[in-house]
Specification:
- It is globular, with a radius of gyration of 15 Å.
- The protein contains 4 helices and 2 strands, in the order ααβαβα.
- The N and C termini lie far apart (43 Å).
- The chain is mostly helical and 110 residues long.
- Helix 1 crosses helix 4.
Length: 110
């Protein structure tokens, strides 16, 4: 499957918030990615189950939900408003992720 660019509506919604994502590309996750990356984040429970199924032995718990306990709807045939709502959830998830990662990062520095 080829790497896919964001949709026009996603690019426009992100740009309104100062994010420039037009050069980004999505690709399928492969098993080696789960061992390669420290943080493997699923956008919904279905993705989480698939990532854990794909994970190498001993790494099945590495993938976790990006926005627990809610799941993030992935707009496919969506409106601009759907993308705005998705960005609201992504920004909140990023704040939560940063709060989770900060103690880990501080411990590595100390």
């Amino acid at each position: 499957m080829p790497a896919e660019p964001p949709s026009r509506l996603a690019i426009e919604a992100a740009a309104r918030r100062g994010y420039y994502i037009s050069s980004l590309r999505a690709r399928p996750v492969v098993a080696v990615d789960i061992g390669r990356f420290d943080h493997v984040l699923a956008m919904d429970r279905g993705h989480l189950a698939e990532l854990r199924r794909l994970a190498p032995r001993g790494l099945t718990e590495r993938p976790r939900l990006f926005t627990p306990p809610a799941t993030l709807p992935i707009p496919t045939a969506a409106t601009a408003r759907d993308y705005e709502r998705a960005l609201d959830l992504i920004e909140a998830g990023c704040r939560d992720l940063l709060a989770t990662l900060m103690p880990e990062a501080k411990a590595k520095i100390a």
